[in-house]
Amino acid sequence: MRIATRLRLAAFVPALMAVLMGVGLFISYREATVFQGRQAVATQITGAVADLRDSSVAYHANPEDRPREQYLIVIDRLTRIVEDASFDDAAQAAHLKNIRMVVPDLRSLFAQLVALNGPNAGQMDAALRQEAEERLTAQLFVRSRSVRTEATALADLISQDTVNGQRDILVLTSVAVLLVAAATSFVLIAIVRRVSTSLFALHSGAEAIGTGNLAYRINGLPGDELGDLGESLNRMAGQLESLTVSKGALEDEVLSRRAAEDEVRRLNAGLEERVMQRTEQLEAANRELEAFAYSVSHDLRAPLRGIDGFGHALLEDYGDSLDDEGKDFLRRIRNATQHMGRLIDDMLKLSRLTRAEMRCTSVDISGLATRSAAVLAEAQPDHHVDTRIEPGITVVGDPDLMVVVVENLLDNAWKFSGHNDDAMIEVRSAAVGSGERGFLVRDNGVGFDMAYADKLFGAFQRLHRSEEFPGTGVGLATVQRIVNRHGGRVWAEAAVDEGATFYVALPERVPGDENEEDAS
Amino acid sequence: MACTASNGSPLATKKVTIATTQLTGSAAIYVARQKGFFAEEGIDATLAVYASGGLAVAALADRKADMATAAETPIVRAILSGKPLVVVATISEVEHSNVLVARKAAGIAAASDLVGKRVGVVRGTAADFFLHIYLLASGVDPKTVLITALKPDEAVDAITSQRVDAVAMWDPYVTTMVNRLGSDALVLDEPGLYTMSWNVVASRDLTKSDPELIARVTRAIAKGTDYTVQHPDEAQAITSKATGIDLATTRAKWADYRSVVALDQSLLLSMEDEARWMQSVEPTGQPGIPNFLDYVYTGALKTVRPTALGIIE
Predict the structure, then answer these.
(1) A153, B265: Cβ pair inside 8 Å?
(2) Can you give the residue ranges of every domain in chain B?
(3) Domain boundary among A182, A197, A212
């Protein structure tokens, strides 16, 4: 049975108690009415008997009409009362029967007494009449007394019966109430015992499950609400058990992955360390190489200057002694020596560029290009070039290095468009990537084959013969070195005889430069 | 059945002899004996049967019995003759217990015809008193009737042998006479004129020497009375068997029988009236009548059933 049903039943019991008490009170009221009716009969009988005695005494004292009539009235009344009355109780009925038996005697005895005083009385001997009157009066009084005693006994019985009846009703009602109360207590105790037992089982189960014993199952609960709760807890434990298995697998996975990550981190840390070591080694090697190159370049200049000086002295002092071929050889020597000197200078310059400290700021490329074009035009007045420079081009970079970039690119364009009568050099801003600023330098010169584009920025790499386009092959390498130091990019697009375009893209902020705030 | 006193200890059985007459009025005693109420009270009762209450009282006076049952008339007579008796309780009241059985052939058709006739009666009995007041109420001077004193067992023969013209008697003699006379029998009675009380009496000595015995006997009889009221059919059967009166007659006369257990003022009135009558008929030489309060013993009923005491004390 469900707990709710049991509680409803328990709540029904007080209602039953109230009904029982109500029934008890109703029966009590009805019984009281019955008892009241019986007592009323007893009172009427005893009252009539008292009236009867008074009337008979009065008649005995003075045998006149008034007491005679009253006696007859009372005897009629008493007759009606005892004939109408009825009692279920045997003892009461016996008393009523006794009264019923005597009342006619009273009537007949009184009638005989009256007859003794009637018209024919004179015929009787006076003494005889007197004795007859005495005897009859005595019998009348005896019988009256009997009726009175019976009536009193009846009234006593009825009173006792009333008391007993009320006591019985009280006892019955009390017993009924006690029974209902006992039933209520029994039901409630049963509910409490059952609930407490179930709660204990639930508590134990919850404790076991809560402390990790997910295999624990709550059994033996009744099919009520707490039983449902126990089933729910069992289901929950089952689900927790399966989830815990998954969690274990996940934890193993996490542990293995964490170990893998640790291994990766450990390897990465070693790798970075190795990279740093290698970088440091490479930087040291570079520095040594650059120092070596610088030393070599610097040290080579003196002998070259000696060769060129002695060649010049030889031409000046012994030129007449040489034939034309000898002189030609000597000039070639000097040209080669001077070319080598320029190579060395460019190398030194390139070396300095890579080692000089950068101070970045906003650089006016348009201005630099304009000034550089003017210098080139002045140096080669016979070479007419249509120079188109977009104003307002700025980038973020070291001003001195940017001068070198712009001069080399314009010098390059100027040089390779030298054979074109309608030479044109264009400098303008270029569309570059996000976070970059860029510009391009375009000429309509000889261009080059893009198949060799990978050699374009190599040092001392040349795509044209020096006789046709003089140069050391260091200019574009220098440009690339400077752009790289700024963290930028440089590339070219060209086609043979269709000119070339060089793009420069520089970051709006140069990484690691302490003056980048100024550049913004 | 085990007998215990009120304190729970077993009652010592007391023997008692009760002198009785075979009358319906003793129904309570018969029932008490039959239903074991005497035994319950620790009484080993012996019922000694006598032909009349007068003889029973005489037996009591002669110490042939411890207690006796009798109508108030022989009791009064015994008291007037100085017997030390006391009434313990009235155990019934019987109407029509005494009647006149007359022979029609003697020329008796009504009470007035009794003048000059021989009427037999057991002197000093309730029948004697009934005859007297019957004659008075009928306007017949008792002195004009020729009274013949009979013993109870002489009555039937006296009337059937025509030694008397009528007999004032009680059952079972009345029934026997009526049956014997057949159509010649005439029963004369005046309804309501006389009601006989049937009483238990004891010697005054016994009330002093063993009041407990009297109380136990009274209690057993009271139980018999209650049982009689509750189970009238069974009581009638028991009474019929005890009295020898056939059951049909017993049942027919049961309506005249009132079962009581009491000591009432009405008994005193009856005894006093009958004492006056007796004094007028047979003067004892004592002035006035006795104080009958001295001849009722209320001790037993006070113990057994105090509500049944109607004596003004």
Answers:
(1) no
(2) 14-95+195-310, 98-188
(3) A197
Give CA–CA dist B177/B181, Å, rounded.
6
pLDDT digits (tens, 9 = 90+) for A409-457: 999 898 888 888 889 999 999 988 888 999 999 999 888 888 888 888 8
Place of tokens 């015992």: A193
CATH topology of domain B98-188: D-Maltodextrin-Binding Protein; domain 2 (3.40.190)
CB A389 within 8 A of CB A369: yes
Residues β-bridged to residue B48: B19
Cβ neighbors of B27 (< 8 A, separation 6 or more) are B92, B224, B228, B235, B236, B238, B239, B257, B259
pLDDT, position A4: 74
Residue A171, pLDDT score: 83
Is B136 close to A138, i.e. CB distance below 8 A? no
CB contact under 8 A, A98 and B226: no
Give me the helix-helix angle, B265-281 and B72-80, nearest 10°.
60
Q: What is the rounded distance in angstroms from the CA atom of residue B262 to the CA atom of residue B264? A: 6
Numbered residues of chain B with Cβ closer than 8 Å to any chain A Cβ: 93, 95, 132-133, 136-137, 139, 141, 190-195, 226, 229-230, 255-256, 258-260, 262, 264-266, 269-270, 272-273, 276-277, 280, 307-308, 310
CB proximity A109 to B under 8 Å: yes
Contact flag A101-B262 (C-beta cutoff 8 Å): no
SS3 B226: helix
Per-residue model confidence (pLDDT) at position A510: 65
- CA–CA distance, B221 with B228 (Å, rounded to integer): 10
Q: Which domain holds residue A417?
A: 357-519
| CATH number 3.30.70.270 given to B14-95+195-310 | no
Q: Is the reported ipTM for this assembly greater than 0.85? A: no
Q: What's the structural domain count of chain A?
A: 2
Does any domain span residue A286? no
Q: With CA atoms as reference, report the closest residue to A485 among A389, A359, A375.
A: A359
